[in-house]
């Protein structure tokens, strides 16, 4: 996806531990024109799957999920982190280890919003070790919902996320695949 590659090349900054900072356009300040294109691209790739819901984890996945769900004309469902007081106790939940924060936290969605009739597209801004996506996959499995695929904006190919997901038979689509980081520059696959 040319426009996404251009944004990454122009704006991405490399932090210690190979964390890619894209808060200029993706997960802090959001470039809405780019986000709309991201939504259209995921629609192109999953349009035959009869998606009924787009699911992600708060907060950095919400923009991606919203733009994608607009194209499918379906709701967004985002898993909440921690133990929110304003949530019913009736939840599907999973523990997830965060790569960027090096901490484990709980993600949860209310049972009323995810059912076995749902055909779900999981989306996120990054795929690294796959923990966020695997956590969402587990939540969908608990609900009996069918996972049609995982849509990722930026995949860090040297980490194991995509291998772990594909081993489980999940259809993964990544819009930008970064092979490595050399001299503080990203190298696309
Ligand atoms: P995973 O669960 O696949 O290990 O990591 C994905 C999650 O961690 C994403 O939700 C994303 O927010 C965060 N993440 C992983 N790697 C990066 C990175 O290089 N940059 C940023 N900004 N977030 C990342």
Number of helices: 5
Bound small molecules, deduplicated: guanosine-5'-monophosphate
In total, the number of strands is: 10
Radius of gyration equals 16 Å
Order of helices and strands: HEEHEHEEEEHEHEE
User: What number is the mean pLDDT?
Assistant: 96
Strand order of the largest sheet: 5-6-4-3-7-8-9-10
Please report the distance between the alpha carbons of the first and last residues.
Answer: 12 Å
> Beta-strand level of the residues, as a percent range?
35-45%
Structural class: alpha/beta
Query: What ranges have pLDDT less than 50 throughout 5 or more consecutive residues?
Result: none
- Biggest beta-sheet profile: 8 strands, mixed
Helix content: 25-40%
Query: What's the overall geometry?
Result: globular
Produce the secondary structure layout.
Blueprint: H1 2-11, E1 13-15, E2 19-21, H2 32-46, E3 53-57, H3 62-72, E4 76-81, E5 91-98, E6 103-110, E7 119-127, H4 131-143, E8 146-156, H5 161-167, E9 172-182, E10 185-188
Parallel strand pairs: 3-4, 3-7, 7-8, 8-9
Antiparallel strand pairs: 1-2, 4-6, 5-6, 9-10
Bound molecules: guanosine-5'-monophosphate.
Guanosine-5'-monophosphate is lined by residues 19-22, 27, 57, 60, 99-100, 124-132, 161.
Question: Can you describe what's shown?
Answer:
Helices cover 30% and strands 36% of the residues. It is of the alpha/beta class and 189 residues long. The strands form two sheets. Strands 5-6-4-3-7-8-9-10 form an eight-stranded mixed sheet, sandwiched between helices. Helix 4 links the parallel strand 7 and strand 8. The mean pLDDT is 96.
């Amino acid at each position: 996806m040319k426009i996404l590659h251009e944004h990454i090349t122009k704006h991405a900054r490399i932090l210690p531990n190979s964390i890619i900072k894209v808060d200029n356009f993706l997960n802090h300040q959001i470039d809405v024109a780019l986000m709309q294109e991201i939504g259209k691209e995921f629609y192109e790739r999953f349009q035959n799957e009869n998606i009924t819901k787009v699911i992600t984890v708060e907060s950095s996945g919400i923009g991606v999920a919203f733009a994608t769900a607009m194209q499918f004309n379906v709701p967004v469902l985002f898993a909440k982190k921690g133990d929110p007081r304003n949530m019913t106790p009736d939840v599907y939940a999973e523990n997830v280890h965060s790569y960027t924060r090096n901490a484990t936290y709980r993600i949860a969605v209310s049972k009323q919003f995810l059912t076995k009739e749902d055909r779900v597209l999981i989306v996120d801004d990054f795929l690294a070790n796959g923990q966020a996506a695997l956590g969402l996959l587990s939540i969908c499995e608990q609900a009996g919902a069918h996972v049609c695929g995982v849509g990722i904006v930026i995949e860090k190919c040297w980490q194991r996320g995509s291998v772990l997901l594909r081993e489980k038979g999940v259809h993964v689509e990544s819009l930008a695949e970064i092979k490595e980081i050399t001299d503080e520059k990203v190298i696309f696959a």
